[in-house]
Structures are given as structure tokens and as C-alpha cells.
Amino acid sequence: MKSLIYLSQPNQEFSRSALTKLATEAAENNKAIGVTGFLRFQHNMFLQYLEGKSADVGNLLAVISRDKRHTIVNCLYNDVEHARRFSNWNMKFVDEGYLQQHSVESFLSNQLQLMKEQTLCDNQWQQLIWQGVDILSECAVNNHKIT
Questions:
Q1: Which residues, in sequence order, are bridge partners of residue 40?
Q2: Rounded to an integer, what distance in angstroms lies between the CA atom of residue 10 and that of residue 69?
């Protein structure tokens, strides 16, 4: 599997129902091409993680990049082969309730803010972002709280 995570700024308002609809449509499209991941919306920013075959993830990012509803401001690629982290999530909309349930809301919120502001050097914030993905993946696989 190859993976990436990107941060984007919306170019329009998104209601809760519009976000849910967006994630549902993405889940249907992703299932058809074998891509999994999650979508988070916070601080008026999207954070999306995608994983799958390299060509599928690359093609999907090209489609996402052309979507006029947002502008990608940062993208991190993980070119290291790894096992699928979110096998049951074609595109999970990760909301506050899910994060609170698994005791990771403040950690991921801080990471999103760091990615937005890039207040750490590149290597530091990239490590923090991938650490957050790993923690969320552990929650998804084991369905338990991280302490």
C-alpha cells in the first residue's frame, strides 16, 4: 500500500450534512477503486488520508486536486510500502464524537493546527502527522481508547 495525507482549505461553506454527504460519496467512489482512508474537518480545514495501490491513490489525488470546492495547501506522501491501516474505512468521516470516544481529539486537533501553520520544521511536523495516523489506525483496528 501507498498512502498520503493532505490538508485543504474549503472554497465554500460546508454544513454538517454536506460533510456527511461528501464522505458518503467518497466512500462509494473509493470502494470501487480499492482506496481506503478518513476525512476530518476542523479549524475550517480538511484533513484527508488515502491509502491503496500507488496508481489508484495518485489518480484519486489528481481528481481531488481539480475539485473547485477546496484548495490543497499541503500534501505528505508515504512512499514506503506498508499494510493497509484502514481496511474497513472506504472513507470514514472522523467527527468529534469518534475522536472523543477514542481519547485522541486533542492530539489530532493539535496536529491539524500544526500542519496548517507549519510551526515546526518539516521533518518534525511530518513525523507528528504520521504518528497521528498510526494512533487513529490503532483505534480503527482495535476499537479501543488510547491512553
A1: 47
A2: 6
Amino acid at 142: N
How far is residue 107 from each of residues 16, 30, 53, 70, 96, measured CA to CA in Å? 22, 27, 29, 24, 12
- How far is 60 from 40, CA to CA, in rounded Å? 17
What would the CATH number be for the domain defined by 2-142?
3.30.70.100
Give 78's Cβ-side CA count (13 Å radius).
Answer: 24
Q: The C-alpha cell of 108 is what?
A: 489530532
Distance CA 48, CA 92 (A): 10
Tens-digit pLDDT profile for residues 76-107: 887 677 788 888 888 888 766 655 565 555 66
Do the beta carbons of residue 48 and residue 40 sit within 8 Å?
A: yes
Write down the pTM of the prediction: 0.78
Alpha-carbon distance of 45 to 70, in angstroms, equals 9
